[in-house]
Amino acid sequence: MAHEFELSKEIELAATPEQVWDAIATGPGIDSWFMGRTEIEPREGGRSRFTMMGGAEQSTVTIWKPGERFAYRSDEGPDGAFMALDYLIEGRDGGSTVLRLVQSGVLGDDWESEYEALGVGWDMYLHTLAQYLVHFPGRTATGIVSAARPKAGDPEHVWAALTGALGLSGSVTQGAPVRLAVEGLPVIQGVVDYAGLPTFLGVRTGDGLYRFIHSGPSRGNVLVLGHHVFSDDVDEQTAEAAWNSWLDRLLA
């Protein structure tokens, strides 16, 4: 049975309202911290398109107030399901900005686990937005790399293998140094910037943001990598092939 829902989140960002607007209401800005790729027609009534790993979702911009408020609503599916997102931007003294979002819509039969997944997912992606605005201000991603390993294994197995490959031991904490060599790619050296195991692990380097996401047993134990690239020396197709090959070997 379909279930209506509403989810609210709030975060204070070390950025101006104009910088936050560019990050949440333009395609290049969204592509620099969120999953997949987004295209937006910049006006109320404009159309937007979100694509990821072969799938696509179309939406309509419902509110367009630059620097203040941005909202859109996805097209309804055959079953009436849809998603709507509403961002409110509020500048603060000292140059910071409070961003509030409300996501609403209709979830399916497994709505409780879907709702929980949305909540923890937004926590991670809003943190990624904050990292982007602090560490890559005025820049947009030059590339977006996605890779996935279906049936990767249970969370304990996956994270043990992945953290070991990253040179991490014991409890994974924010700020821990990371080093990883993936054949065909430059050596990755950075720090853990998000420790959200058993679902998320974030790594930040001088030229990129990496996000490792495990779906959990109820969703097929898929491990997904998302990499926002801020340099010109990474070819997306080459990188995706290298990452997919590395994940297959790591989790064989």
List the helices and strands and how they pair.
Layout: E1 3-13, H1 17-25, H2 27-31, E2 37-40, E3 47-52, E4 55-65, E5 69-74, E6 83-91, E7 97-107, H3 111-135, E8 143-149, H4 155-165, E9 177-180, E10 188-196, E11 200-205, E12 208-214, E13 223-229, H5 236-250
Antiparallel strand pairs: 1-7, 2-3, 3-4, 4-5, 5-6, 6-7, 8-13, 9-10, 10-11, 11-12, 12-13
**Largest sheet, strands/sense/barrel:** 7 strands, antiparallel
Low-confidence stretches: none
Could you tell me the mean pLDDT?
94
Shape: globular
Q: What is the total tally of β strands?
A: 13
Give the structural class.
Answer: alpha+beta
Q: How are the strands ordered across the major sheet?
A: 1-7-6-5-4-3-2
The gyration radius over C-alpha positions equals 18 Å
Q: How much of the sequence is in beta strands?
A: 35-45%
Percent helix, as a range, is 25-40%
**H-E order:** EHHEEEEEEHEHEEEEEH
* N→C terminal distance: 37 Å
Count of alpha/pi helices: 5
Walk me through this protein's architecture.
This protein is an alpha+beta fold and 252 residues long. It is 26% helix and 39% strand. It contains 5 helices and 13 strands. The chain has helices at 17-25, 27-31, 111-135, 155-165, 236-250; strands spanning 3-13, 37-40, 47-52, 55-65, 69-74, 83-91, 97-107, 143-149, 177-180, 188-196, 200-205, 208-214, 223-229. The strands form 2 sheets. Strands 1-7-6-5-4-3-2 form a 7-stranded antiparallel sheet. A 6-stranded antiparallel sheet has the order 8-13-12-11-10-9. The mean pLDDT is 94.
Give a quick rundown of the structure.
The protein is 26% helix and 39% strand. It has 252 residues and is an alpha+beta fold. It has a seven-stranded antiparallel sheet with strand order 1-7-6-5-4-3-2. A six-stranded antiparallel sheet has the order 8-13-12-11-10-9.
